[in-house]
Amino acid sequence: MAAGITGRALALGILASTLALAACGSKENEDTGGELIDAGGDGDEIGVCEGSIPVINGLSCVNTGIQAHYETNEDTVTMALLAEISDDDGDLHQYRMEIYIDDEVDGVVASSDSPFGPANQTLNVDECAGFEATVELTLYLTGLRPDFDTEYDWGIILTDAAGYESDMFVVPCITPTADGSDGTGAGG
Questions:
Q1: What is 4-174's CATH number?
Q2: Tens digits of per-residue pLDDT, 135-148?
Q3: What does the domain layout of the chain look like in residue ranges?
């Protein structure tokens, strides 16, 4: 069973559609920046909202226990990353989030170690009306990378519809244990 992620975004009180992605060892959609990202929107060019860099205002981790895997329906250990995001020009109607981890908990994460593929999302808002959202990414863990019951620095980079990237936001988090209970960082 492969690790994976699903994402849910809540913007202006409207639940956006759910997206499920499988984890992969390499990134399939390398970010080139400055280009409209393909996150399932209508493909129209960005209008007056282009130009502002998106911001990750907060990031936290939550143990979400055992859940049915989105593909196999098998019970799987999960955790969620909760990100508060904003963009002054409103072009979060489409966005991409990249998740990175680092074994050394020092507040620095290299943007080369991503065991998860990018999460491309659309908010259920009009173009240029995506000013802020709270995004929940549920990660399905297998005990490989990331290991169970292990503390990592988790880094997130947000790319808006115009292709502008945020600074990486980093927070230390401990993964759940193999039985889905809260981890202590003792190792899986």
A1: 2.60.40.10
A2: 898 999 998 889 99
A3: 4-174
